Amino acid sequence: MKKQVRSVIALLVCILPLYSGVIWFRLTQYQPITVTGMLVYPLLIGGGFSLIILLLNKYLLKSTFKKTFTPAKEPVSSDIIMGIILTIIFFILLAIERATVYRLFPQQDPVSVELAELLERIAYNPWLLTLWFGPVLWIGIAFFEEITRIFMMRCLWNLGNNKTWQVTVVILVALLSGVLHMHQGITSIITLTIQGLLMGFYFYKFRRILPLIISHGLYIGLQILAMVMRYR
User: Fold this and answer.
1) Rg of the Cα trace of the chain?
2) Mean pLDDT over residues 69-89, rounded?
3) Structural domain boundaries of the chain?
4) What is the value of pTM for the model shown?
C-alpha cells in the first residue's frame, strides 16, 4: 500500500472523527464546564486518541515516533530552552492581542467565566490541583494537542512533495486549530490561529515536537496557576 493511501486512511480513521466530533459538540452540545469535564475528559479523550495516533503511526504508516515527530537531532536541553522561549513569545503575542484584537472584538467569554468559577472551587483541593497540573495538563492537553497537530501535518505532507504544499498544510492546520475554539469567540479563533502558525512553522523548520509540548503546557499552566493563586 502506498504511503499516500496509508496517510489518507490515518486521517479518515483518527483525525476526521476527532475534529468533526469536536466541532459538532461545540455547535450543538454546549454545557457548563464541570470538574469531570475539566479533569477526566482530557485524560480519556486526549490520552485515548494519543494512543491511537501512536499505533497508527507505527502499524499503518510504518514509521517510528522519532522519525515522525523528532527526526532532527537536538539535545533535550535545547528543546527545553526553545520551549521556554516559545512560551515567552506566546505571552508577548497575548499581550499584543489583548491591546488590539480584544479591543476590536470586545466580548465576555462564557467558557472563561465558568472556568474561573470552577478553579475557585478546586483551588483549595490539593489532589485535584495535582491531577490537573500533572497528567491532565501534560498528557491530556499539551501532549495530545501537539501530537495530533504534527500527525495531521505529517499525513498531509505525505500527499505532496514540495515546499508550497507543506507551507499550505501548516496554514490550514493552524486555521483549523483556531476554528475548533469557535465557541470562545472570534478573539480566541484569532489568538489560537496565530499560535498554531507559530507552532506549525517551528516544526516545519526544526522538526522537533518536544518544544511545542513544553510551550503548550507552560502557556496554559501558568495562566491557570495565576488564577488559582489569585483565589488563594
Assistant:
1) 18
2) 94
3) 3-231
4) 0.92
